[in-house]
Design goal:
2 strands, about 15% strand
Length: about 80
């Protein structure tokens, strides 16, 4: 596994993902993939892999409580005026 693969853009913007990569990442026919632009270039990931990453990054967070705390602080500031 070198991690570097070269492919050529085909007609109508089609790309061929090398078989080794498809097998390793479970990219079967019909798999949803996501292209994300980043400062480093274009990132291709599967929808499932992105979901796992986002869940991992948010693990232990309580976004609802954080939002409620923020709203309470804003209300306190408005009430103090």
């Amino acid at each position: 596994m070198s991690g570097t693969y070269v492919t050529t853009m085909g007609d109508r913007g089609r790309l061929v993902v090398p078989a080794e990569i498809r097998a390793r990442h479970g990219l079967d026919q019909g798999t949803s993939v996501i292209f994300m632009e980043s400062p480093w270039g274009l990132v291709l990931t599967s929808r499932d892999a992105l979901l796992v990453r986002v869940q991992s990054e948010l693990e232990g967070s309580n976004l609802v409580e954080e939002l409620l705390d923020q709203r309470r602080r804003s209300a306190d500031i408005e009430d103090a005026k």
